[in-house]
Design goal:
With 383 residues, the chain is an alpha/beta fold. The protein has two domains: 17-41 and 282-381, Alpha-Beta Complex (Aspartate Aminotransferase, domain 1); 56-280, Aspartate Aminotransferase, domain 2. Helix content is 39%, strand content 16%. The protein is built from 14 helices and 15 strands. Helix 12 (282-306) runs parallel beside helix 14 (366-381). The radius of gyration is 20 Å and the shape is globular. The mean pLDDT is 97. The protein binds pyridoxal-5'-phosphate. Pyridoxal-5'-phosphate is lined by residues 33, 92-94, 118, 165, 169, 197, 199, 229, 231, 237, 242.
Length: 383
């Protein structure tokens, strides 16, 4: 079966947050992390069947069929055996990060994370009266790595949690088994609960399998909250269906009451889309990965050949490219590129030093990416 990722679908003046930001301006939005692709036909068909039913009353809060789809997906793709009762449903993973921040430790306790970090990693602890403490990733031979010495130096007696992102947004790293074992050992040594955000786990572009942190050993599973969702992969974040997988009953018991009735149930369409994506979306996902590999390679070659002063480490996963623009010495790189027709995310929001990085979302038709690259080149020529 073939799928079309080349057709440019017009999202201007729709309900798209990504495109609305630049409404009325000729700026290609390559910022927020959704793609410009239509979801798999199986997802659209399942939604159409559900919409045709016409009744949208309260849904089942713990839908067994969707939980079974998650259990089967984890077994098939990650060789990770989970139980349906370990799943806690969430309307979004940012919500999950906030719930996790609130669930463990007390006011003023610290949540440790590595920078650069997806911005809610930095903001969620403060929202929940915790403190964010950061340790930078190291770049060794052009590869982003966890700096365990920096992490250890950042731990204090008030550190209760580690927020981990794997595969990593924004660097695109897929951490290896030895790296994950070192993360597990670190968290065990310092008695930390780990919230492992694995939302990008089905978007691995290199030929390696996803290894959930919690699948490494019963010991690390007992202290891990794994956050996952089909939203990034199948482009359904607007339908809000995500989940935490928490094997340890005590950890789960602390997570659930902390959100109580503040967090709404997942809506019925979100469940329908998630189940269809997980059960029937695999051929489409494989085609998507092939397309994204092509985009990644196009972008990497373009950066190397046409964008002097810009550097990109290998993007092993995700459709996000973390571009080092520090050599350009721009005070506001995202603003500069916006002025030349490309909307990127400013690295400073991810904890990078101002003026050093921008993030580019290449989850778009090749023609859009090529046009954005041409604009970036013209922007550099105009400096
Ligand atoms: C690492 C990571 N976590 C969470 C999210 C957002 O999750 P949600 O839309 O479910 O809140 C994103 C979106 O880009 C992300 O990259």
């Amino acid at each position: 079966m073939s799928f079309d990722f080349d057709t440019v679908i017009n999202r201007r003046d729709t309900d798209s947050r990504k495109w609305h930001k630049y409404s009325g301006r000729d700026i290609l939005p390559l910022w927020v992390a959704d793609t410009d692709f239509a979801s798999p036909p199986a997802v659209t068909a399942a939604l159409q069947r559900r919409v045709a039913h016409g009744v949208f009353g309260y849904g089942v809060t713990e839908p067994a069929a969707v939980a079974e789809a998650v259990v089967a997906h984890c077994a098939r793709h990650y060789h990770w055996t989970i139980q349906p009762e370990w799943i806690v449903w969430l309307p979004g993973l940012v919500c999950g990060l906030n719930v996790a921040a609130a669930a463990y430790g007390a006011d003023g306790d610290e949540v440790l994370t590595c920078t650069p970090a997806y911005p809610p990693f930095l903001g969620a602890p403060g929202n929940q009266r915790r403190r964010t403490v950061t340790a930078p990733l190291a770049r060794r031979d052009g590869r982003w790595e966890i700096d365990f010495a920096a992490l250890a130096a950042a731990v204090t007696p008030r550190t209760r949690q580690f927020f981990f992102c794997h595969p990593h947004n924004p660097t695109g790293r897929v951490f290896t088994r030895p790296e994950l074992e070192a993360v597990a050992a670190f968290c065990e040594r310092h008695d930390l609960v780990v919230t492992s955000d694995e939302i990008h786990c089905d978007l691995i572009l290199d030929p390696v399998a996803h290894l959930p942190l919690a699948s490494l050993s019963p010991a690390i599973a007992a202290r891990t909250v794994t956050l996952m969702a089909p939203s990034k992969t199948y482009n359904i974040p607007g339908l809000g269906c995500s989940y935490a997988i928490i094997p340890d009953a005590a950890l789960r018991a602390r997570f659930e009451p902390s959100y109580g009735s503040i967090v709404p149930d997942v809506n019925v369409l979100g469940f329908v889309a998630a189940e269809a994506a997980l059960r029937e979306g695999e051929p489409w996902r494989q085609a998507l990965l092939a397309y994204l590999r092509g985009n990644r390679d196009y972008l990497a070659a373009f950066v190397a050949a046409e964008l002097p002063g810009v550097a990109l480490s290998r993007v092993e996963a995700t459709y996000l490219a973390w571009l080092d623009v520090s050599a350009l010495e721009l005070a506001q790189p995202a603003g500069f590129f916006e002025g030349h027709g490309v909307g990127l995310s400013d690295g400073a929001a991810f904890g990078a030093a101002p003026g050093t990085f921008v993030r580019l979302n290449f989850g778009c038709p090749r023609a859009t990416l090529a046009e954005a690259c041409a604009r970036l080149k013209r922007a550099l020529a105009a400096r």
